[in-house]
Structures are given as structure tokens and as C-alpha cells.
Amino acid sequence: SQTIHQWPATLVQPVGSPLSLECTVEGTSNPNLYWYRQAAGRGLQLLFYSVGIGQISSEVPQNLSASRPQDRQFILSSKKLLLSDSGFYLCAWGGQYDNEQFFGPGTRLTVL
Amino acid sequence: KQEVTQIPAALSVPEGENLVLNCSFTDSAIYNLQWFRQDPGKGLTSLLLIQSSQREQTSGRLNASLDKSSGRSTLYIAASQPGDSATYLCAVNGDYKLSFGAGTTVTVRA
Description:
heterodimer, A: 0% helix, B: mainly beta, five-stranded antiparallel sheet
């Protein structure tokens, strides 16, 4: 069966510091991969998605970036965090056929 | 741009009552629709996936209907239990991207 991992589970970072969140998927090949953010009191916002290695599409302009160095690995990064980057970050994968999406446990990021 | 609306925003019912959660979307050109459950501080759990060609999908006490032409989906939860308390999210899949509603927060009172 397929599983999706995210780490770390929680993170507290100062403003201006770098960020790296990692997501890995097991049990499937060539998945579509997604990064979402859920801010307090707001809905889920799609940040990036990838349909293959090295292929990244950005949905919202921001100081975040994403990379897909391997088929089942998706990384969210920032060079300098802002207060507004605080939120709950969720990684998801979807199949190539129907793209039913499955979510990881999330990373709670607090920027102080 | 696809817009997804969920009504009501919150719902409180006594145990045993049936739940009806509504989702509407503005663009009927969709591939499928997913219903998710989210517990506080947790990720999303996929409950049901309805393909655009389907009218409904069932899993245990859950039944979801889809009327693509009118841009509506309804999630029914039969005989609610306190363990059903959570936020339920509707998401519409268009061009491999999901557009989410804001969710309905359900509380089932014992």
C-alpha cells in the first residue's frame, strides 16, 4: 500500500531563516505531487505541484520554492522566512489516472 | 477560476441523527470530486471519490452524490456518532489540481 511521509512534524523558526520541508511517498511510481498550505481560519491553498521529476508548477507567487530531485521526493524551501509563512503545510500525492489525492500528516510551521 | 462553497460552515447534531453536508462549485468542467475528513491538527483523510461520470458513491455509512450540471455535491452520513466529529472538506478536481471549499465543522453530541 501507499504511504506518504512528511517531516518535521512541527517547526519553529525565526524570521529571515531558511526552510526545508521534505515529503516522500512509498508504494507508487510517477505520482503527481503537491504542496498545500492551510493558514489559520483559511482554506487549503495549493502552492506547487509536480507531474514529474524536475517539473514544478507554482500556483501562488511567494518567497517559497519547490523541488523534486527524485520521483517520490518533494521538497519545499525558502531562503528567508516571513511571518506570513506560518501555517500548516501539507504534502499530497495523486495517481496519474484519476488523480485521487492522498495527504501526508502535515508540518506545523511557526515563524516568530 | 473554480470556486467551491460549503454550507453550512458548522453543524451540531445529537448522536444518531443523519448528517447532510452540501458543496457547490462554479465550473462544471471537472474530472472528479473528493470528500475529505480533517481532525484538528491532522492531515486530510480521503473519504470518497466521485468521478465526473458518476452520480453517487457509497462507503459504509457515507454516501456522496454528484450533480455536475448544477454544480452540486452532497455528503450524507447516516446514524452519526461522536467519532464523526471533524471538519469535512469538499474538493473539485480540474486539470489535476484540487480546489477546496472552506469546510463544514461537524460536532456530534453524545
